[in-house]
Amino acid sequence: MGSIQKIEQEILDEMSLFGDDWEAKYNYIIELGKTLPSLSDEYKNDNFLIKGCQSRVWLKAEEKDNRLFFYADSDAIIPKGIIALLLKLVNGQTIEDIKNYDFGIINKIGLQQHLSPTRANGLLSMIKYIKQYASK
Amino acid sequence: MDTIIKIREQFPFIVNHPDSVYFDNAATTQKPKKVLDAIQEYYETINANIHRGVHKWSMLATEKHEQVRSKVAKFINAQHPSEIIFTSGTTNSVNLLAECLSANYLQKDDEIILSTLEHHSNILPWQTRSKKFGFKLKFANINNKFQIDTEHLQSLITEKTKLIAVTYVSNTLGTINDIEKIISIAHQHNIPVMIDAAQSIAHLPTDVQKLDVDFLVFSGHKMYSPTGIGILYAKQKYHEWLYPLSSGGGAIIDVNYFDTEFAEVPLRLEAGTPNIEGAYGLGAAIDFIYENGGIDKFYLLEENLKNYLYQKLFELSDDLDIYTTPETPSVSVISFNVKNQHPFDVGTLLDNYGIAVRTGHHCTQPLMKHLKIQGTVRVSLAAYNTFEEIDKFINALQKTIKMLK
């Protein structure tokens, strides 16, 4: 099991405690959003803006020794929590591992079913951007 | 209350989803069974192409189609059915008008006055053509009651002002504008007026003769009809301006290789096979409205619901920014934000509680920029909504506020 898959399993184990309780699930995501450090204002511009989200999401990537590090922010707390969750998985991972990861976690934690297509597009845009950085 | 239940029972969507609260009626209303049955009936008993067939089915379909035109004319008190032009919706109506006026009326350096409250559908059709044809757009401000500031609008008028095109009701805030005054100011300067009635048509009685409005546009789907059908009302004296750039079958008297004699309005504006089933559905929706007491009755029901919603929201005003005032005339639409929270978060959580509201900029970005906000949470009610649903919404909103704190 790769490093990303291991983290994914940890998150799934943690979230399985919530069962069908969507409020608990969203509380968890909101808390994740609150703990993600804010992105410095100099990066909150169109160059780092992810299009396709109803809220604004900024994502900045850095490469160090063949590994990727992401810094992100949003003006809404739920998207910020979702991106914090994604960053838990991919931050510091190798480019190769990120390229090969399918982000199946979104379905596994039932986020997709709670997000309407327009909103899911925002989520998919985030994933697409992460993948794009990895494929550059 | 019994009246609401009687109306409510006629909407299969509402009956099929007893646990859901649908408060996004300004985006589109649900459809009564009468309208759904009419569409079915149309295909099962009438279906034929209109206006050109000599066979009885084509003549029957044409007759039914033209009956709807007369019904719409009566509904908004137009002088003549030929003033009713079928379109695919409000956006299409404004674009058709903008296209005709750009080609046959507006000149370079002419000015059009819009307002800060406008939906993008009443900005973009003028903006794109203003760039192409060289006329200018001006925007009237809003006052502290969130209505179009008629004094500011008046101050924008010059001898180059050739059209005023404003909304009757704000889609985002629900505000009712003083369009009687705006039309009267415009006519003092011999300027024609287009009114965007998309958000008023299902909530306020519309009398185009009493308003003396020159052009009026609306969609069927916001007044219990199917999607894809709308109206452009055009006063007869302006029909000479209404020659479209896009044309085709059905719009003509005689076609030669290089020249064409066009039919009269409305037919020359309705090229191609129109949305016949949609028009038929619109006719059924108008019947539905009359059978349930008319728009006046709907207004009274919605006014009671809105006042209750206002009262409940103002009780939470420590946590909310509400974009209306007690003195603002409005339909049953209210926009707000939870203080320091993004409308997307509020809408997402409300959705999980089974409440459908609209969040975002509502296609009114100039208004959002004026209010210095990213978006709002918009609650929009229809005559089939209930006090219990408002209680359920307020309860969910209180939980949402708590979760986001």
Provide the spatial order of strands within the biggest beta sheet of chain B.
2-8-7-6-5-3-4
- Report the CATH architecture of chain A: Alpha-Beta Complex
- The helix-strand sequence of chain A is HHEEEHHHHH
Q: What characterizes the major β-sheet of chain A?
A: 3 strands, antiparallel
Contiguous helical run count of chain B: 14
Principal-axis shape of chain B equals: globular
Report the span from N to C terminus of chain A. 25 Å
- Which segments of chain A are poorly predicted (pLDDT under 50) over 5 or more consecutive residues? none
Verbal overview:
The complex is a heterodimer of chains A (136) and B (405). Chain A has 136 residues and is of the alpha+beta class. Helix content of chain A is 55%, strand content 13%. Chain A has a single domain, classed as Sufe protein. Chain: A (Alpha-Beta Complex), CATH 3.90.1010. Chain A is built from seven helices and three strands. In chain A, strand 1 and strand 2 form a beta hairpin. Chain A is globular. The two termini of chain A are 25 Å apart. Helices cover 41% and strands 16% of the residues of chain B. In chain B, the strands form four sheets. Chain B has a seven-stranded mixed beta sheet, with helices on both faces. The longest helix of chain B is centred in the last third of the chain and has 22 residues. The two termini of chain B are 36 Å apart. At the A-B interface, helix 2 and helix 3 of A face helix 12 and helix 14 of B.
